[in-house]
Each structure stands twice: as C-alpha cells, then as structure tokens.
Automatic annotation (TrEMBL), chains A, B:
Transmembrane segments: none annotated. Residues 37-120 form the Cyclic nucleotide-binding domain. Gene3D superfamilies: Jelly Rolls (2.60.120.10). It comes from the Bacteria. This is Crp/Fnr family transcriptional regulator. InterPro entries: cNMP-bd_dom, cNMP-bd_dom_sf, RmlC-like_jellyroll. CDD domains: CAP_ED.
Amino acid sequence: MKKSSAHPFFDHLNQFVTISEKEFEIIRSYFETQNQKKKQLLMKANSPCDQIYFVLKGCVHMYFLTEKGTERTVQFALENWWITDFLAFQKQTNTHFFIQAIENTVVLSVRYGEYERLLHDFPQLERYFRIIFQIAYGSSIMKMKYLFDFSKEEIYFHFTEHFPEFAQRVPQYLIASFLGLTPEYVSEIRAKKRS
Amino acid sequence: MKKSSAHPFFDHLNQFVTISEKEFEIIRSYFETQNQKKKQLLMKANSPCDQIYFVLKGCVHMYFLTEKGTERTVQFALENWWITDFLAFQKQTNTHFFIQAIENTVVLSVRYGEYERLLHDFPQLERYFRIIFQIAYGSSIMKMKYLFDFSKEEIYFHFTEHFPEFAQRVPQYLIASFLGLTPEYVSEIRAKKRS
C-alpha cells in the first residue's frame, strides 16, 4: 500500500492547511472513491444533490439541458478541483444540473452529512474550504467580466491561452458551450487564426 | 450606547455560527465603519484591493469600465452582504473594478492582514465565511445558467420577481447592466408588460 503522503489529495490539502499523515488517514475515511468511465454521469438533473466531488484523476463537466434540449456547460473540473451544484448541495434540494466524465475519471465524493461531520471534526478544513470557495467565487466574478467585456473571439482565445490544459484535454464543443459560443463559431475562428 | 446584541452584524453572524456578545465586541474592533454618500467610490480600478466590505445599511455595486468606457455592473450588495474583488483580495493585487454607493451607505470594512488575523483568532469565522462563499459561488453558477438558458426578457423578469428588493431600490439601468441588457431594451419590455 502507498504511503498517504503520496496521495494527491493529501498534498493538495497541505498546500492550504496543515494536515498530518495520521489526520489524513481519518479524513480520507469520510470519502468514497468512484471510478467513472468517459461519458458516465456522476449526478443527474431532477435528483437530490447530496454529494461534492474532488477530481483525483481525469476531467468532468457540469451542464444543464436548455428548453431546446441543448447541453450547456457551466463548470469544468480537472485534477485537484471540486465540483457540484453547491447551491442545491447547501439547501439539500434537487439539482438542475448533470455532472459527466469527459475522460475516464477517478473522484473522491463525500455526502452532505459526512461533509458536515468532517468539518466539525477537522476545523482546519473549514479554513481550507473557505479559501477554495473564496477563490472560486472571485473567479466566477472575473468570468462574468470577460463574458461582458470581451468579443466572442477574444473570450475564446483568452480562455485557451490562460487555460492551455483545458484546451488540450477538453473537446472544443464543450469549451464553446462553456463560453456561450456555438461549435461552428469556434471552428471558424480557429480556422481563421491558422490561415 | 446600544447593546451589541442589537447590532445587525452580530445578529447576522449568529444566523450561521455562535458568537457571544463578548466575542463580538472584539470581532467588531477589527473593522472600520465607513459612511459613503450616494455615488461615492469605496474602491477604484487599478489600485490595490486590500479590503472587503460588509453592507450595514444601503446598497453598493461593483462595476468595471469596458474598452468603450461603459460601466458594467457585475455585483450588487444590499444589507448583510459582502462585496469586493475577491480574486484580487486573495492574491493581494490591483483590481479591475470600482465599488460605488448606490444610496447613502454604511459599510464595515476589514483589511487583508486584519481579516487573516481575525480568522486566526476566531476560527468559527472560518466556518462563517466558508458558508457565505459556498452560497455565493453556488449562486454565481446559477446566474450563469440563467444567462445561458433564458431569453433576455425572461432574465429580466426572473430577476425582478425573485429579487423584488433590488428592483425597488436599484436604478433600472444598473439592473440592465448587471443582466447584460441595454437600458433601452429594459424600458421596452417593461412598457410592453404594462400595456
């Protein structure tokens, strides 16, 4: 068995707070490991949102279906990032979103009751999640600025330049969806740039 | 002097965590009270973002200037809500945003170093801010869904129906800006609805 210090979640937590190996062994026990094949769903719309997910390996996206039945991506998560419908999770209600694996993916998941118990038992994780959500909220305000300020072409190239890992790993039609663009438009501006 | 239990910030904190009156007296000392006249700026673009603000009374908005010089609102804060450029605050960098009072406003403000010291001294506030940011982040994902899913008309009426206090207190052109609409468009659909 691997030493816990080699666990990516252990290393990740210790970038923000101090967790000993012994504490980590207990923290780890609050989580389940889920292996998801590419295209599999971790969460479905119109069902209770009772879990949050931490990506250990792979990539997922969260999307909803528009009235016309089109998938619209609102969030991605690569390694070391959290994803769920945090509002439905907080309120313990049904979600409007789906979460789907874009690659074969391994996530840690924790249910609401366990999450609350974990935070109670390890108050340093209140600090960890406070920092994570502070950054996530700040980033979402910045995304709003880009959506309002940039032309569609600028939005696309800004995103792919600032997040090259996404541009390499995530299919173009999902990046287009996340940025509020059509796949045809993205093909067009990419072709224009190449020529 | 009023008893601290009558302080709206005390009542607000105790909706999420348990703070005694004695603790509150100390917590209160980390903050400054700022009185802002309508239209006054609390934060300016291209300057360090070193403070977060809690609205005690009144209303503010955070906006940026587009390349064409138009103000675009990305966030509002009424009573009992926090506002700043959280990403610049976290990274301690310059901000791209302005924060301006929409009415005569009273805010509590805390600087970065004091905020960190406060969280260190009162770990229950890590929990408080974790919950606040979890809700704020979850709400921002939901806003993204509305922007992508709804027609412009639906966005406007959804917002004014769900947040009637904003619709009453905030000028229409700022609500339009926040929702990515033009003031002319909002006038048009409001007139259409009345007729």
